[in-house]
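Hey, weird one. I pasted the Regulatory protein RecX sequence into the form twice and got a warning about non-standard characters only the second time. First submission, copied straight from the form history:
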Amino acid sequence: MDDKLKQKLKNYVLWLLGRQEYSRRELTLKLQQKEATEEFIETLLDWCEKHNFINEQRYCEGFVRKHIFKCHGLKRIQSEAMGKGIDRSLLELVVEELEVDWFELAQDAYNKKYSNTPPDLDYKDKAKRVRYLMYRGFSYDEINFAMQAQ
């Protein structure tokens, strides 16, 4: 790789990071699409970490907060974090620090979707609501709490 291409890729990474946070894995994939060498990718991302342009802790906190704001449950957050390459132990630490009440969050998600509907449900409607909350990543206990609270 010549110096001009290296500078172009460095500018590309800085441009990406100027727009939003990225995990190291996401940036690696983006650089691989631009056909950068593995050695250059490692060097560039190490430089970014050294200058605090990439910070996995900060990225993970933002990721979890975004999903909590969208009323997603722990299971959904864990699933999507795996796809983003977030370390499981770091994710658990961030979730523990935020002290989220998952039961209250499930209730908020339920109320946001079904607040204007009658409380008397037949089996089909109840199953539909349970599937909706399961898709959002809540456990059965959290779902039962949300549906009982209405």
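That's the output from the first submission. The warning seems to come from a hidden character in my clipboard, not from the data itself. The CA atoms of residues 116 and 129 lie 14 Å apart.
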